[in-house]
From TrEMBL:
Subcellular location: Membrane
Domain Sodium/calcium exchanger membrane region: 36-189, 222-364
Segments passing through the bilayer: 9-30, 36-55, 67-88, 103-124, 136-156, 168-186, 223-241, 253-275, 287-311, 317-340, 347-364
Bilayer topology term: Multi-pass membrane protein
InterPro entries listed in its UniProt record: Alkaline_pH_Ca-Antiporter, NaCa_Exmemb
Coiled coil (residue ranges): none
GO cellular component: plasma membrane
Main location: membrane
GO molecular function: potassium:proton antiporter activity; sodium:proton antiporter activity
UniProt-listed PANTHER family: SODIUM-POTASSIUM/PROTON ANTIPORTER CHAA, SODIUM-POTASSIUM_PROTON ANTIPORTER CHAA
Lineage, broadest ranks: Bacteria, Bacillati, Actinomycetota, Actinomycetes, Kitasatosporales
Keywords: Membrane, Transmembrane, Transmembrane helix
The protein's name in its UniProt record: Ionic transporter y4hA
Length: 366
């Protein structure tokens, strides 16, 4: 990528679309808007998603893997957590299960949707999708532990009625989640970085792309625009959510479907980035995005809501119901069987996608 002038950068669609989306967010936030405004907001949301993917890939190309996938996963999750806490502050008792529902939706979408799509695309392209089982297995183990501590245990504890933790238990879960996430990031980026580097279909480790990386100035500019795009994506998803809620209600669907739709919107940047990486025979990058996003979603959300619960009114429900526990157990078992060989065929990708389909179907028809 050759250096570009400030003027050329200014007139790129990837520059002005996120800025337009941010302006639209400022003008529509907290207001009742007509249908045509919602349509415009939806179009800008889609444009901001594509721009976010572009800028994330620019940053990733500059810093290399696994730092690049970490940037996008962390940025999306930080803004997602901020949105959850904001909604909980405004919603009262009716948002008691919001954190749980959002985190579980993110886990299912990333660990089955993005994970399965990456394996399917990578294997269809090269016959067999290859990845590093050491790094991917470590990530899956961390996601499993975080999900178990934060989403399963509250269902079975007896100190407090209902699927929730006591204050002491919540503090433990928050500290454990933050420490595990920090330990994994250190492992991924410092001590065992080689375990998260992409592997080609021939089994060779790939360190860098074969073209000129962007300049430092372009990378910093893309990092700033990535933040703007992600704020716009999450904010506009909140703006269009009343329209989504109205449509879901008119269709006679459960309210949980709204959370699934919004989670899909928020995770679009990572989904597209993972798809593009798999097309380039960099399946490990795609899996880093999938599992890293699931891990960040739990590891950052639980500590955030634990702190927010100090001033938030109402209960904080974290424990999953029986149906979702079965889906989580299937996801973990299938994930282990997929990761251990270090390679996958289209079958494994299809199995994971079928679990995501089951989650969506049961959200529509519990």
């Amino acid at each position: 990528m050759a250096p570009s002038t400030d003027k050329a950068l200014l007139f790129r669609w990837t520059t002005f679309v996120p800025l337009l989306a941010l302006v639209a967010l400022v003008l529509t936030w907290g207001r009742d808007v007509p249908g045509w405004v919602v349509a415009v907001a939806g179009a800008l949301l889609a444009g901001a998603v594509l721009a976010a993917v572009h800028h994330a890939e620019t940053v990733a190309h500059r810093v290399g893997e696994p730092f690049g996938s970490l940037v996008l996963a962390l940025a999306v999750t930080v803004i997602e957590v901020a949105l959850i806490v904001t909604l909980m502050a405004d919603g009262g008792d009716k948002t008691a299960s919001l954190a749980r529902d959002t985190v579980f939706a993110a886990v299912m979408i990333t660990c089955n949707g993005i994970f399965g799509m990456s394996l399917l695309v990578g294997s269809l392209r090269g016959g067999v999708a290859r990845f590093n089982p050491e790094g991917t297995g470590a990530a899956l183990a961390t996601v499993t532990t975080l999900a178990g501590l934060s989403l399963l245990l509250p269902t079975f504890t007896t100190s407090s009625p209902g699927p929730k933790f006591t204050s002491g238990q919540l503090i433990f879960a928050a500290v454990a989640s933050a420490m595990l996430y920090g330990l994994f990031v250190t492992t991924q980026t410092v001590r065992h970085r080689e375990s998260f580097i992409p592997v080609t279909s021939d089994g060779e480790v790939v360190e860098e792309e074969d073209h000129v990386p962007p300049t430092e100035r372009e990378a910093w500019t893309s990092l700033g625009l990535l933040g703007v795009a992600l704020v716009s994506v999450v904010g506009l998803a909140k703006v269009v959510s009343p329209t989504i809620e109205s449509g879901v209600a008119k269709a006679g669907l459960p309210h949980a479907v709204v959370g699934v739709v919004i989670a899909l919107l928020v995770l679009l940047p990572e989904s597209i980035a993972a798809y593009r990486a798999a097309l380039r025979d960099r399946v490990q990058t795609s899996l880093n995005l999938a599992l890293g996003s699931a891990m960040a979603s739990i590891g950052l959300t639980i500590p955030a809501v634990a702190i927010a619960s100090i001033w938030l009114d109402g209960p904080l429900l974290l424990g999953l119901g029986a149906t979702h526990m079965v889906l989580l157990a299937l996801t973990v078992v299938v994930g282990i069987l997929t990761v251990v060989p270090g390679k996958a065929t289209p079958l494994q990708g299809g199995v994971h996608l079928s679990l995501l389909a089951a989650y969506i179907v049961l959200a529509i028809n519990p």
